[in-house]
Design brief:
Layout lengths: L9 H12 L5 H8 L3 H14 L20 H14 L3 H8 L3 H10 L28 E9 L12 H17 L7 E9 L5 E6 L4 H17 L6 E4 L8 H9 L3 E4 L9 H15 L7 H17 L24
Parallel strand pairs: 1-4, 4-5
Antiparallel strand pairs: 1-2, 2-3
Length: 329
C-alpha cells in the first residue's frame, strides 16, 4: 500500500521504468534521478518488462503458499464445534488439542460472529433494534438481590468467618422469632431509545408492588418530557396479572411480553441489571445493606447523567433526553 510520503507513486514508478526500459537509462542514473535505491529501480523496471503499465501498482503481500496453515479438515472441525456447541476458542482448543490463538484465527477467517452476538438457545444472530424516540418502548424487569448482613459478607471478612457469622446470626434470630436477612428486589424501567433508567429497591415482587412502582416510573418519564407508548416485560406473574393489565390500559399504554425463555428480547434492561451488579451492588465491600442502599441513588444519577454508554457513542442517557432534570449536576 502506497503511503502519503512515498517517493514513488504508481505514476512515478511508470516514469522510472520507462526511462530504464524505453530510453535505456542505466539503473544507477535512474535511481539517482528518482531518489531511490538501485534495487528499487531494478524491481520496477523488471515488472514493467513483464507486465507493462498494470505492474506498477502494489501487489498483495500474502504468500502464494502457506505450508504451516491449519489443515482444511481441522478448520472444518473447529467450525462444526462452534456451530453445534457455541463454545469459545479456549474450550474448542482444549477439545481438539489446538492452541486457542489458532482457533481464534480460524473463526475470524471464516467470519464467525462473536458469542455475545448470538442467541445461545438457537445459535442465530441476535437482531438488535432501537426505537426512534424516547418513550416508544420501556423495558421493565425485576432483579432479585441478596441483602448484606451487618458487618459485611465474605467480601469484607474471609469466607469462613462470614459463614460462621451468618450461622450464629441465623440461630439467634430464630430463637427470638425474627426473620432472616432475606433479599431485595430491584424494580427497573429502562427507555429503549435513550437508555434512561428509573429504579427502586423494594421488598417484594407482588403485583401491587410492581404496579405502584410502574406508576412512579411513568410519572418520572412524563416529568422529563417522555410519553410512554409501550411497555415490554417478561412473563412474571405480576406482569400477567389483571391489575397490571388494567393499569396500563387505563393509561393508554400497550403491553408487550417477551417470548418464553428468551430474556434477550428484553436485553436493554437485562444489560442494565448486569451493569448495576458490576458497578454498584458488588463494586466495593459494603459493611451493611443500608450502606449499599445509600450508595444507590448516587450511582443511578451517575448512570443517567454522566456515565458514557457504548451504544450512545460514549454519551450518557441524558444526552438523548433534553428535558431531563438535574442534567448538569
Amino acid at each position: 500500500m502506497t503511503h502519503a510520503n512515498a517517493l514513488l507513486t504508481p505514476a512515478g514508478r511508470l516514469r522510472l521504468a520507462r526511462c530504464v526500459v524505453d530510453d535505456r537509462w542505466p539503473l544507477r542514473r535512474a535511481a539517482e534521478r528518482f531518489q531511490v535505491a538501485v534495487s528499487t529501480a531494478k524491481r520496477w523496471a523488471d515488472r514493467y518488462r513483464e507486465d507493462g503499465d498494470a505492474a506498477m501498482v502494489d501487489r498483495s503481500s500474502r504468500p502464494r503458499r502457506s505450508p504451516s496453515r491449519t489443515p482444511t479438515r481441522t478448520e472444518r472441525r473447529i467450525i462444526k464445534v462452534r456451530v453445534l456447541r457455541r463454545w469459545g476458542p479456549a474450550r474448542i482448543a482444549y477439545l481438539l488439542g489446538l492452541n486457542p490463538s489458532t482457533v481464534h484465527a480460524v473463526l475470524r477467517r471464516y467470519g464467525m460472529p462473536r458469542l455475545a452476538h448470538l442467541d445461545r438457545a438457537t445459535g442465530r444472530s441476535v437482531r438488535r433494534y432501537e426505537h426512534a424516540a424516547p418513550g416508544d418502548l420501556i423495558h421493565v424487569d425485576i432483579k432479585k438481590l441478596g441483602n448484606i448482613p451487618d458487618g459485611g459478607g465474605h467480601r469484607v471478612t474471609d469466607r469462613a468467618t462470614a459463614l460462621l457469622h451468618k450461622k450464629a446470626t441465623t440461630t439467634a434470630r430464630y430463637r427470638h422469632g425474627k426473620p432472616r436477612i432475606g433479599s431485595s428486589y430491584l424494580h427497573n424501567a429502562v427507555d429503549d431509545h435513550s437508555r434512561l433508567a428509573y429504579s427502586e429497591i423494594l421488598p417484594d415482587e407482588k403485583k401491587e408492588t410492581a404496579v405502584e412502582f410502574w406508576q412512579r416510573a411513568q410519572t418520572f418519564f412524563t416529568s422529563n418530557g417522555i410519553t410512554v407508548a409501550r411497555v415490554l416485560t417478561d412473563n412474571g406473574s405480576c406482569y400477567k396479572s389483571r391489575l397490571w393489565r388494567d393499569t396500563l390500559r387505563d393509561a393508554d399504554i400497550a403491553h408487550k411480553r417477551t417470548r418464553p425463555y428468551r430474556p434477550q428480547t428484553n436485553g436493554k434492561v437485562e444489560r442494565f441489571n448486569r451493569t448495576l451488579l458490576e458497578e454498584w451492588a458488588y463494586a466495593r465491600p459494603y459493611r451493611s445493606e443500608r450502606e449499599r442502599r445509600d450508595a444507590y441513588p448516587g450511582w443511578l444519577h451517575t448512570y443517567n447523567h454522566h456515565r458514557g454508554h457504548t451504544a450512545l457513542a460514549g454519551k450518557p442517557p441524558a444526552s438523548r433526553v433534553p428535558n431531563l432534570s438535574g442534567q448538569y449536576t
